[in-house]
Specification:
The protein is α+β, with helices and mostly antiparallel strands. It is built from 16 helices and five strands.
């Protein structure tokens, strides 16, 4: 992925293409998807108008809705073999947009060119109505080039009326889409080892083997290096759903995401040598966030048979996870890495639950977590 400062619309279109897993010959899913995302833009804008400062997340939510809409527009252009940058260059070729940047950049659809907000007398409501109308006009059949230009112009008017920067919308969508749909490469994982600069006593273990044993009381016990860690756990619910083994999810975060304030606290490996990390990343609030997120995912997992025979986690779940961990170091991890942590963690959980215990084997270098039955211990 190119550096943000040099990103062009042609770059965006090329790099986002790999995330398009829809039928390349079927227009209906992308047209309907675009129309649905425009509805999302309208709903978000309505909240902003109605709740004003009470809806403090408007900017981030609106950027995401505009970004998802751009994704679908790029998918439509791809199917019609029309360069996305040409559509926006023609859409912006009127008095409401400034001509900034080099001529070559304008031809390629430089985000710096299109992103410059221009004062407009049109209200947000009026621009959103035009956006909805232009989206509806494309439903039913493959749109013409003029339809795409009309939509792109309404899109730009709306994004400027919402006081958002097109460059930030496009870059945010590129990060989200590639992070959610593409397997992370070595470059994507660089810098995602959050404690490598700390002493070993303040690092999460690089390799670990955790013994999990359920006793006759129905409580689950954890042992690391022969020492009991944490408190014995029960399901804490009438429905015996196996939540007593939920620590496996925290260990999955350790192995695959290189993150877990919960486990740092359990094994006393907080990064106390740096007060900023100790307070902001390893504190009680971070622990509560991780526990709350884990419980929320578990409630969704119960509805999905604990992800058995599933190869994917829904984008909706992944997006909510992103919201949960916003502001913490783990927010840098691609959503695809979260998907791996969930699916691999639940694979081990199902075996722990079925066998009422076992070994949790983790390797941070390989970002893996595996199960081994207790009878294999030596």
């Amino acid at each position: 992925m190119k550096k943000e400062g040099s990103l062009l619309l042609s770059d965006y279109a090329a790099e986002i293409a790999a995330t398009d897993v829809l039928n390349p010959n079927d227009f209906n899913p992308v047209l309907q998807g675009l129309y649905g995302e425009v509805g999302g833009i309208m709903a978000t804008a309505k909240k902003s108008v109605r709740e004003r400062t009470a809806y403090s997340g408007f900017k981030k939510a609106a950027e995401e809705e505009f970004g998802d809409t751009l994704w679908y527009l790029a998918a439509i252009c791809r199917r019609l073999q029309i360069p996305l940058e040409e559509i926006f260059a023609e859409a912006a070729n009127h008095g409401n947009f400034k001509n900034v940047g080099a001529a070559s950049d304008i031809t390629k659809g430089a985000l710096a060119y299109i992103a410059v907000p221009v004062a407009s007398t049109a209200s947000l409501d009026a621009t959103l109505v035009r956006l909805g109308q232009s989206a509806a006009a494309m439903l039913g059949s493959a749109p013409a080039r003029a339809d795409l230009i009309a939509f792109a112009r309404a899109y730009l008017d709306a994004i400027h009326a919402a006081e958002l920067a097109f460059s930030e919308v496009a870059r945010g969508n590129l990060r989200k889409a590639r992070g959610a749909f593409l397997e992370p490469q070595a470059d994507d994982l660089a810098g995602l080892d959050f404690d490598s600069t700390f002493g070993v006593e303040e690092q999460l273990p690089r390799e670990f083997k955790i013994r999990v044993n359920q006793r006759g009381s129905g409580k689950s016990y954890l042992q690391w290096k022969g020492v009991f860690v944490g408190d014995p756990l029960t399901d804490n619910i009438a429905d015996r759903d196996g939540y007593r083994f939920h620590d496996v999810f925290h260990f999955a975060y350790v192995a695959i995401l290189h993150w877990s304030p919960v486990i740092r606290a359990l094994i006393k490996h907080k990064r106390k040598s740096n007060p900023k990390y100790d307070e902001e990343q390893d504190s009680g609030r971070a622990i509560v966030v991780e526990e709350g997120l884990t419980a929320w995912i578990f409630s969704r997992a119960k509805e999905l048979n604990f992800f058995e025979d599933q190869e994917k986690v829904s984008l909706g779940i992944l997006k909510t996870i992103g919201e949960f961990v916003s502001g913490y170091e783990v927010e840098k991890c691609p959503l695809k890495l979260w998907e791996k942590a969930i699916l691999d963690g639940y694979a081990v959980f199902r075996q722990l639950k079925a066998n009422q215990g076992g070994w949790i084997i983790g390797n941070r270098e390989q970002r893996t977590i595996k199960y081994m039955p207790l009878e294999s211990e030596k």
